[in-house]
Specification:
12 helices, 258 residues, 3-stranded mixed β-sheet, mainly alpha
């Protein structure tokens, strides 16, 4: 089953679920609205890189408004800028920009527009080498196309909900403020597959190797995350394989590349 068919099936299933039939039709559902939302889902399957970057701009801006950002030249801001020195100034053609969110949560994420956000809770927990390894991992999700797929999925779910709620003549075709907030949350907390997580780990390892930087920090970073036992909210804590397995994998690569 290809991506477009899956998304169309998702829209149809969501629109029809829980709706009673009356006179051969579906009670309370605007079929035109459902079909319009179905078109939105199909668009989600073929979002261009430009579309994804534009939506990422909006999502990142929405997230920034909801969080306290470390002041320029504050200790967190200065440290982050120091840690990322050596990374490419662009990510998939988009200029990178880094900010620190002042929160005790342990997390970091990156979007396709070069927006990279690191939480102060993670910075407090990690040394510079560990932090650099984690940031490289998050950048890997963007570079390898994982974030784009997550955006497509989140956008398709929004289309499905539009279809399910289409009871009038108007169909929501642009994201409302609440829908944008929901989309942003889904992207930040996206759950990646085991294969994707491992690939992002390897991406970080390879980038650190190219920059001739410490790779052991990536091992100890995962060891620290393993001790948190999958704390709530952070994608790096709730993904598979386990943090312990990921640490062992990177250590094996270090041993093989001595």
């Amino acid at each position: 089953m290809n991506m477009k068919f899956k998304l169309l099936a998702l829209v149809a299933t969501t629109a029809l679920a829980g709706c009673g039939a009356a006179g051969g039709g579906v009670a309370g559902v605007n079929v035109d609205g459902m079909m319009a939302a179905g078109g939105t889902a199909l668009k989600a399957a073929s979002l261009s890189d430009t579309d994804v970057k534009t939506m990422s701009d909006d999502a990142c801006a929405a997230s920034d408004k909801q969080n306290k950002i470390a002041a320029p030249k504050s200790k967190y801001d200065v440290r982050l800028n120091k840690v990322v020195q050596g990374f490419s100034p662009s990510l998939n053609g988009a200029q990178t920009n880094y900010r620190v969110y002042m929160t005790k949560d342990v997390n970091a994420w990156a979007m396709s527009n070069g927006c990279i956000r690191v939480y102060s809770g993670l910075m407090d927990m990690m040394n510079d080498s560990e932090l650099r390894g984690v940031i490289g991992h998050e950048m890997g999700h963007v570079a390898l196309g994982h974030t784009k797929k997550a955006m497509q999925t989140a956008y398709a779910v929004t289309a499905a909900r539009t279809a399910a709620g289409a009871t009038g003549n108007a169909v929501v075709t642009n994201l409302s403020a609440s829908q944008l907030g929901e989309l942003t949350e889904k992207i930040i907390n996206a759950q990646f597959s085991q294969v994707q997580e491992s690939a992002a780990d390897d991406y970080s390892f390879d980038q650190l190797t190219k920059m001739n930087m410490d790779r052991k920090g990536l091992v100890t970073a995962f060891q620290k995350l393993a001790k948190l036992d999958g704390g709530a909210g952070a994608s790096m804590l709730s993904s598979h394989p386990s943090s312990t397995d990921r640490a062992q994998h990177i250590q094996q690569r270090i041993d093989q590349n001595k």
